[in-house]
Amino acid sequence: MSASTQTEPDLVDYDEVLTRYEPLIGLETHVELGTASKMFCGCATTFGAEPNTQTCPVCLGLPGSLPVANEAAIESTVRIGLALGCRIASWSRFARKNYFYPDIPKGFQTTQYDEPLCTAGHLDVEVDGETYRVEIERVHLEEDTGKNLHVGGATGRIHGADHSLIDYNRAGIPLVEIVTRPISCAGAKAPEVARAYVAELRDMVQSLGVSDVKMEQGSLRSDVNVSLAPIGSLEWGTRTETKNVNSLRSVERAVRFEMRRQAAVLDRGGRIVQETRHFHEDTGTTSPGRSKEEATDYRYFPEPDLVPVAPDEEWVAKLAASLPELPAARRARLTEEWGLSPTEMAWLVNAGALGLVADTVAAGASPSDARKWWLGELARRANDAGVELAELAVTPRQVAELAALIGAGTINDQLARQALDGVLAGEGDPAAVVESRGLAVMGESDELGAAVDEAIAGAPDVVAKVQGGKVQALGALVGAVMKTTRGKADAATVRRLLEERLLGS
Amino acid sequence: MSTDLTTTDAAELGRRLAAGEITAAEITGAYLDRIAAEDGELGAYLHVDPEAALARAAELDAAGSVGTGVTGLPVALKDVVVTEGVPTTSGSKILEGWRPPYDATVAARLKSAGTVLLGKTNMDEFAMGSSTENSAYRITRNPWDPTRIPGGSSGGSAAAVAGGLAPWAIGTDTGGSIRQPAAVTGLVGHKPTYGSVSRYGLIAFSSSLDQAGPMARTVLDAALLHEAIGGHDPMDSTSIDAPLPLLAESARRGAGGDLSGLRVGVVRELGGEGHADGYEPGVLARFAEAVALLESMGAEVREVSAPAFDLALAAYYLIAPSEASSNLARFDGVRYGLRVGDDGTRDLDEVMALTREQGFGPEVKRRIILGTYALSSGYYEAYYGQAQKVRTLISRDFNAAWGGADGNGVDVLVSPTTPTVAFPLGARIDDPMAMYAADLCTLPASLAGVPAISVPAGLSEGLPVGFQIMAPALADDRCYRVAAALEAAQDDARGHRLLDELTGRAAQPAGGAA
């Protein structure tokens, strides 16, 4: 066994890696579709249900049971393929991938092999203002496996465990696998390109409405392939495949770590073993799993229990015509419509605020107001609370309402922040909070007149200065009125009232 | 007409039920008595629950609907058919004790049609075999001669029906497993068009070949039972969404004996000139007589050559084991059935391996190994890929026989069902190739997915000979029509049914004092 799989204490400095090696990356991304039922049976697909409550003879693989393909899942896959600019097969088949593991109830996984539904597409991603074209090799449809829970033992893995439990609720949930061609153009940006690709893919799938693409729940997960070749080499190096990397940040870290680790192995004359590896979120490192060199022969063959899928050309054309606006096109359009620079758009996207801002604009706010709220006050509050923007308890419609209240002069910026407090506290929509908390700007009322009179009476020295010609001293009186009215007064109105009383103008 | 309920046709039993002459409970009771008396020796059944069967029959009597269709009639199911709450083993130790939580579509349809489940019949393990000797549980004997095999893999169903331990039964046929046992026990057995009877709930052997079908004492009975189980099933993706042809009607019409205009092709490659090696002269003689009988009823007979049929055996023994190696992977001891070696000291792989080592018999292992090899990377094209091409060639030969677009072909193809009469128990068990040869004539129809029926054609050396009629896909009614004509003509000539020669004959070796 080579040293590479035993000890890996040394990592080469990232910048140094790039002086000697060129990285080649590739991603295999699994997306759990959000269909109401499973891929080959009628079982529900609700996340988080009690173990083994969403099962039947088919997804448990009981003797005699047979699969029936879920048409909605096929449609979703074709839509993903179309969104990626793929060629949609006119004839496609499912295949059996044979291997033994307790989480696959039939002793094989029903997947697609040499006749996938979609081939040859691409996805453009942007990193630091540059566009990288990621070529898509194939998009195919398969079924998810069950989940093993290994009880006891130190690692949570099957080896060393006391016993194992299996939950087949996930078994048979439709899974779309999107496989890139090797990405060689990324160079130093390989980790960022990998991350940007997964992010773009996630947003695209989300825009299609075919999956909730929640990486933390595993409904989108990526396997990251990385290899290094000496600069100028005509051949690519041996790759490793880091499995189930479950966040965007982890995708980037996994690529970076593998590049640094592999460089260290190669530097000392070692050999990279073609293997699957596990990513560890806590340390940002990978460790070896199964070696592919001793891996099973999956003995793929066409699934005889299912008839071939032959997407009708007209149907595919109809699906293509009904695709929603995709994220890239939408970004381009909004950049133009809102008069933003590409950098400003990039900020919005990186902050995860694009959809929120767009929805806020759609609810009636001006683009600048919407951006100001989401990138300013709301970003600050999300940051303080340690949550994502989208997780704040305020909707784009409510933000638009706040902006509208300010625009109408009903509240000012300071009152608006108080109104937001109320909204976030669950007190209702902004207008209701303004009403219940009494936050509206005071008009020219007796109450305001009394407050003005009180300020004049309380500061005879200031009054004397003002009447003596030092008009700028009026500011102190305005401040006093604002204080008594707890910010609800309109400063300009207060100033005018003071002038009328003291200067008679 | 016999008054013994256990030798009476199902159709006649139905008539008497409808007329109120007998009750469902009486019929079921008569069969249960016979099972109790005979099955210890015969070995047709793996599971019988007399109380449940009688209770079900009484319930049907009480409901008052007996006599309509198949309502009130008992039926035996091959143990490959999954039955809710009733042990289902597929003849294997690896499923010992498994009580399925669901019904196969075939079982569900028979249940909702009002039949009584008599029991589950013995079979070659996972339907792999031609003698039922590969059952992990017991030997099944041929009612015509207890020293001989009842055929297989549906040998339990065949023995039960021929022996009067069931009026009719469901079998399954992957390469001949309905037709060959029907032939060697003097029954009618039909393998339907692939996709015309649901496979949902049949424990899979070879998915692209498996079909369930009827085994009965008469052609009409077979047609009636077929009608009760056939038709489209949304639970089976390969199920054909087309109405079933009128089968019982065709059987009744065929019994009229007029075959004028029918074009019959005799397949040269199945026992014809230059292809008769391994065929017993008595089988060929009965076959020739039956062909002559068809001609006498107006059929126009010609010889047809189907060269690719010579390759059927080789192709079959790559395709079926390949699919089986994958279909049987689920028997790993994790979820149901046998689990061996799970004592806390062994890891998962060892427990799976031990379970499969002890749970599967030698023929099953042989086919899993064969299939695993044939699907291996690097060998796939040479074996599985080539076999699929042969399959295409066989389909082409059939299509050429039917005449293709010009319509200048034959309506049915005929051959012996199997080259020999029932061979002695033990004769071929150690010689897989000899065992496989029993399916020579039945494999082409299986590989092409076309319907084929076996109907008795008399005796050779005191043992039944089967006559096979093959038809184009979805033309199952043609099989029934021609079979019924042949059956009626033979019964007329003989003065009684072939099976009547078995009734009253004491179980004894053939060629003896009978």
Task: Provide the fold topology.
The complex is a heterodimer of chains A (505) and B (514).
Chain A: H1 14-20, E1 21-32, H2 71-83, E2 87-88, E3 95-98, E4 108-111, E5 118-127, E6 130-143, E7 147-151, E8 163-167, E9 174-180, H3 190-208, E10 220-230, E11 240-245, H4 248-267, E12 275-280, E13 285-291, E14 301-302, H5 313-321, H6 327-338, H7 342-350, H8 354-362, H9 367-375, H10 377-385, H11 396-407, H12 413-424, H13 430-437, H14 446-458, H15 460-467, H16 474-484, H17 491-503
Parallel strand pairs in A: 11-12
Antiparallel strand pairs in A: 1-9, 1-10, 2-5, 3-4, 3-14, 5-6, 6-9, 7-8, 10-11, 12-13
Helix pairs in contact in A: 3-4, 8-9, 8-11, 9-10, 11-12, 12-13, 14-16, 16-17
Chain B: H1 10-18, H2 24-42, E1 45-48, H3 50-63, E2 74-78, H4 105-112, E3 116-121, H5 155-162, E4 168-173, H6 179-185, E5 188-191, E6 211-216, H7 219-229, H8 247-254, E7 263-267, H9 281-296, E8 300-304, H10 312-327, H11 348-359, H12 362-375, H13 381-402, E9 412-416, H14 432-436, H15 443-448, E10 452-460, E11 463-470, H16 476-494
Parallel strand pairs in B: 2-3, 2-4, 7-8, 7-9
Antiparallel strand pairs in B: 1-3, 4-6, 5-6, 5-10, 9-11, 10-11
Helix pairs in contact in B: 2-3, 7-8, 7-16, 8-16, 10-12, 10-13
Structural notes for this entry:
The complex is a heterodimer of chains A (about 500) and B (about 525). By secondary structure, chain A is of the alpha+beta class. Helix content of chain A is about 40%, strand content about 20%. Chain A has 3 domains: about 5-300, no CATH class; about 335-435, no CATH class; about 445-505, Orthogonal Bundle (Arc Repressor Mutant, subunit A), CATH 1.10.10. In chain A, α3 (about 190-210) runs antiparallel to α4 (about 250-265), α8 (about 355-360) crosses α11 and α14 (about 445-460) packs across α16 (about 475-485). Residues about 1-5 of chain A have low confidence and may be disordered. Chain B is an alpha/beta fold and about 525 residues long. Chain B has one domain (about 5-270, about 410-500): Amidase signature (AS) enzymes, CATH 3.90.1300.10. In chain B, α7 (about 220-230) packs antiparallel against α16. The radius of gyration of chain B is 22 Å and the shape is globular. Classes of the chains: A alpha+beta (about 500), B alpha/beta (about 525). Chains A and B meet through loops of A and α10 and α11 of B.
